[in-house]
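Quick one, T. Sequence first:
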Amino acid sequence: MKKHNEFTVVLEKDSEGLYVASVPQLRGCHTQGKSIDQVIHRIKEAILLCLESEGNSALSQVELIGVQRIKV
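C-alpha cells:
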C-alpha cells in the first residue's frame, strides 16, 4: 500500500482575484489559479514536483499553529 503524506496548504485570494496556495512545509512550493478547485489541483501537482525534485531535503520542520486576524 502506498504511503500518503499530508501537508498544510495555505489559501489566499490576491488583489486580482486569483487564488494563491502555498505549502509552508515545502520551501518554494506555491501556485495560483482562477478557482479554488483549480488551485487545489495545481498545488497537488506542485507538491509532487517539489518532492520529486528535492526529496526529503525540501521538507522543513514548519508546523502551522493557526491563523489570526489582528486589528491594529
